[in-house]
């Protein structure tokens, strides 16, 4: 949300550090660095590549991610799978931690969400072998989020 701390940080990254964000997206790749800014994902869906976005934004200081215009290679069909159709990796505690980090960042959730008993119970419901100790507390997720960024 725009009224939360994470919303403020996302806006700051969006306005002042877009090139740095795009550079990290390009350097790390989509698996290690998923696209979490909706406007960037929309441009990718239209046919822009990360490197094309960076080049266009660097050429015109008045250009923003929203005003890139028509992509050099527009997508003419929906041949790309939707995010919800992505193949899920095999379960591991580390993979679960990474997906929780992505959820917190993508949905502007407060880190405290991992302290919510209902959230923790939901995770254990989805994977019955999960122990309470497998789900870190907010300070561990804080460091995981910092490492991800």
Any descriptors?
149 residues; mainly alpha
Largest sheet, if any? none
Query: Could you tell me the strand content as a percent range?
Result: under 5%
Total number of helical segments?
7
Kindly name the structural category. mainly alpha
Helicity, as a percent range:
40-55%
For the terminal residues, how far apart are their CA atoms? 19 Å
In short:
It is elongated, with a radius of gyration of 17 Å. It is an all-alpha fold and 149 residues long. The protein has seven helices and no strands.
Write up this protein.
The protein is mostly helical and 149 residues long. The protein has seven helices and no strands. The protein has helices at 5-16, 18-32, 38-46, 50-59, 93-106, 117-126, 138-148. Helix 2 (18-32) runs antiparallel to helix 4 and helix 5 (93-106) crosses helix 7 (138-148). The longest helix is centred in the N-terminal third of the chain and has 15 residues, at 18-32. The protein is elongated and about 50 Å long.
Please give the structural blueprint.
Elements: H1 5-16, H2 18-32, H3 38-46, H4 50-59, H5 93-106, H6 117-126, H7 138-148
Helix pairs in contact: 2-4, 5-7
């Amino acid at each position: 949300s725009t009224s939360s701390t994470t919303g403020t940080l996302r806006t700051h990254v969006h306005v002042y550090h877009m090139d740095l964000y795009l550079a990290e997206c390009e350097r790390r790749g989509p698996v290690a660095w998923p696209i979490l800014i909706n406007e960037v994902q929309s441009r990718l869906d239209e046919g822009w590549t990360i490197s094309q976005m960076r080049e266009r934004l660097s050429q015109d200081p008045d250009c923003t991610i929203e005003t890139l215009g028509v992509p050099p290679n527009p997508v003419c069909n929906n041949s790309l799978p939707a995010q919800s159709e992505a193949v899920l990796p095999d379960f591991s505690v580390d993979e679960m931690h990474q997906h929780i980090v992505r959820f917190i960042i993508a949905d502007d959730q407060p880190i405290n969400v991992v302290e919510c008993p209902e959230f923790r119970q939901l995770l254990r419901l989805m994977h019955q072998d999960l122990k309470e100790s497998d789900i870190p507390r907010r300070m561990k997720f804080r460091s995981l989020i910092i490492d991800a960024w």
